[in-house]
Amino acid sequence: MQGSTRRMGVMTDVHRRFLQLLMTHGVLEEWDVQRLQKHCYKVHDRNATVEKLEDFINNINSVLESLYIEIKKGVTEDDGRPIYALVNLATTSISKMASDFAENELDLFRKALELIIDSETGFASSTNILNLVDQLKGKKMRKKEAEHVLQKFVQNKWLIEKEGEFTLHGRAILEMEQYIRETYPDAVKVCTICHSLLIQGQSCETCGIRMHLPCVAKYFQSNSEPRCPHCNDYWPHEIPEVFDPEKEREAGISKSNKRSSRSRQH
Amino acid sequence: MSLKPKSRGRAGVQAERGGGGEEAPSTSRGPGGAASQGGRRAEAPSAPGPRSQKQLELKVAELVQFLLIKDQRKIPIRRTDILRHVVGDYKDVLPELLRRAAERLEYVFGYRLVELEPRSNTYILVNTLEPVEEDAEMRGDQGTPTTGLLMIVLGLIFMKGNSIKETEVWDFLRRLGVHPTKKHLIFGDPKKLITEDFVRQRYLEYRRIPHTDPVDYELQWGPRTNLETSKMKVLKFVAKVHNQDPKDWPAQYCEALAEEEARARPQTGVAAPTPAPSS
């Protein structure tokens, strides 16, 4: 991804304020990151040209390298929105969660994670997760409590809930991809196009290869006869649209309207 | 698998960071974080030999994260916690780790690592960047809505001569619709906030006044307040609330001015953490 250019960037108050505020979010969408960047320029360096976001972030990352953290960019699995999170590079575990949750809560997350990874759809039902409550490490947890904990995971953007089923939030994938691939190497699914971890996606019914929805969108863009890249059979699923930030901004007159319609997915 | 203290010649593991590093990822023994497969390795066994740059770097990284997380809750960080949760076997180089962590925190994030009170062995992070009103919209965590209440109490304390009785505080706050016994829409439990939370966060000091019946307490500024703000800033806040000028309170204004002048004079080593040689 990032070249190991040891040429270290320079931090100014613009970058520091950006980092401070970015850290208050577990994960942030690209549009909001751009707003944040502009805000920091406004506070500290009104007249300067706002640097291209990618360069701005690369600059900060070159400084963060020595702290084994980085601002990582990803894409939401359901609709291809670019997202950013400050992730830990050194520890391959669910350590970021460790400071906010008790031992039994972390174990509940691990159980849910395993069910999600093993599932065919990338979703685990609430019922199946709650049935594992007796196997949790640490203090005994009742199902009612576990329901609250699951909601806490949703609020903190580790899980997404859709109609009583849970899958991983983009944030969790960004933070834990490495951990997941190392811990569950046999169960893990991977996208044929981008080779990254795949939780939700579409699969070929003939040969079984999988693709992320945004990867499907890009790969089959303006292709009237989509065929499986591996076995060439017809691709049987609906091809989603490529995420277009401009269209998004025009369509969503007030961002809050968009947010409420997306609240189910995020 | 134990991490052998490595000397030079780390067999080219330098560049490879993401992919399953042979160089042990850190062993942060954070609360509840102990259990995980895969990545964790045990720390160096017996005698701590010379540590490689990379090992130190990793430890500093852990320490920086630990301090950031702890400070987010505004809980002062005790040296003993640092030793227990992060430093462990690296106890002998704690001063060096702290020094490096403090440098990174200030350069990268704009936070100064400061000892709460001299020789208290407790630390907080002080923001070197001035908060700006628009920051609030950019935050992901709604900041602290309780800051308003804190500012009012700090103002009360200062205007009353740096100390105020708890009963007087409630006399005032009741007029604003804030009661010690009633749940408040924004502040929740104001009594708990003022007499417990703010005290624990070291914004306030709360002491019993002897020989009072019924028992009364006095409130003063805590050490964190002195580090994070100033009499002048608080006076300006009070003035703004009354739509007046700070100079309209000459006594307080003089006091605030004197404090500013005192701070402007070169400090005698208050800022940087100066850990004692023997932990």
TrEMBL record, chain A:
Subcellular location: Chromosome, Telomere; Nucleus
Domain RING-type: 191-232
Keyword terms: Chromosome, DNA damage, DNA recombination, DNA repair, Metal-binding, Nucleus, Telomere, Transferase, Ubl conjugation, Ubl conjugation pathway, Zinc, Zinc-finger
Source organism per UniProt: Balaenoptera musculus (Blue whale)
Subunit annotation: Component of the Smc5-Smc6 complex.
High-level lineage: Eukaryota, Metazoa, Chordata, Craniata, Vertebrata
SUPFAM superfamilies with a match to the protein in the record: RING/U-box
General function of this protein: RING-type zinc finger-containing E3 ubiquitin ligase that assembles with melanoma antigen protein (MAGE) to catalyze the direct transfer of ubiquitin from E2 ubiquitin-conjugating enzyme to a specific substrate. Involved in maintenance of genome integrity, DNA damage response and DNA repair.
GO molecular function: ubiquitin protein ligase activity; zinc ion binding
Residue ranges occupied by any Phorbol-ester/DAG-type domain in the UniProt entry: 176-228
GO cellular component: chromosome, telomeric region; nucleus; Smc5-Smc6 complex
Chain segments carrying region Disordered: 245-266
EC class: transferase
Family designation: Belongs to the NSE1 family.
Gene symbol of the encoding locus: NSMCE1
Protein name listed in UniProt: Non-structural maintenance of chromosomes element 1 homolog
TrEMBL record, chain B:
Domain spans labelled MAGE: 56-256
InterPro entries: MAGE (IPR037445), MAGE_WH1 (IPR041898), MAGE_WH2 (IPR041899), MHD_dom (IPR002190)
GO terms under biological process: negative regulation of transcription by RNA polymerase II
Disordered: annotated span: 1-54, 260-279
Cellular compartments per GO CC: nucleus
Annotated Pfam families: MAGE (PF01454)
This protein's name: Non-structural maintenance of chromosomes element 3 homolog
Natural source organism: Balaenoptera musculus (Blue whale)
Native organism taxonomy: Eukaryota, Metazoa, Chordata, Craniata, Vertebrata
This protein's encoding gene: NSMCE3
